[in-house]
Amino acid sequence: MLLYKYRNLNNFDRIKDIIQNKRFYASAYTDLNDPMEGIFKYKAKYRDKYSDKLAEIKINKDNLKICSLSKTCEETLMWSHYADGERGIVIGINRDSLKRKYRDKLKPIKYKGIPFISDDEINNIQAEEILSYKKRGWRYEKEIRVFTTEDFITVEIEKVILGSRITSDNALHIKKLIDEVNKNSSQQIEIEKLENVLERA
């Protein structure tokens, strides 16, 4: 099974970096597009007692980086929002390899809204858990997150899917890039058109 990263082609150097170096950039939660990222509800009787813990949670959130992936490559809204209206690409990576590398740092999003933390939970809650909640309106993304303190996560790329509206020049550039990478690697990257993916869905 694969996990997917939607990408536009506005900066081709970034695409080259992803494919040649087999890595995805990981962002601070404050740079993600949901303004509610990292927010949680905490209604405590003894807020002063847990002020140090609340400060610790804030520091830990600030130190984390997030790489957002999706369980689907077929979502129209995702292609629209993150791949330039199907002019971009989707990169499919090996899920099992990712699990082995990041283990407990790989978490699916819970589309249950802003999390509520009680006094009983505050001492055990982790920043990753808080950052694994989003509102139900985002559930079409079928998101899985990799948490790290590094700027990049390493991945095994298995497939690149070309959007249905990709320009012929960009498609040619992608093909040449992948051909070059495949020549020097035992792990071959497949190229597929979105239309063919959707026909099988």
Largest sheet: 4 strands, mixed
Q: Could you tell me the radius of gyration in angstroms? A: 19 Å
- The stretches of 5 or more residues where confidence is low (pLDDT under 50) are none
Quote the beta fraction. Answer: 15-25%
- N-end to C-end Cα span: 14 Å
Strand order of the largest sheet: 1-5-10-11
Q: How many individual helices?
A: 8
Structural class by helix and strand composition: alpha+beta
Number of strands: 11
What is the total domain count?
1
**Could you report the average pLDDT, rounded to the nearest whole number?**
93
User: Which sequence of SSEs, written as H and E, runs from N to C?
Assistant: EHEEHEHEHEEHHEEEHEH
What is the helix content?
25-40%
Dominant shape? elongated
Any overview of this molecule?
There is one protein chain. This protein has helices at residues 12-21, 51-63, 76-82, 95-102, 119-122, 127-130, 168-183, 194-200, and strands at 2-7, 23-25, 41-42, 65-70, 89-94, 106-108, 116-117, 143-148, 152-154, 157-162, 190-193. By secondary structure, it is an alpha+beta fold. It has one domain (2-200). Strands 1-5-10-11 form a 4-stranded mixed sheet. Strands 4-8-6 form a 3-stranded antiparallel sheet. α7 (168-183) links the parallel β10 (157-162) and β11. The two termini are 14 Å apart.
Short synopsis of the structure:
By secondary structure, the chain is an alpha+beta fold. 34% of the residues lie in helices and 23% in strands.
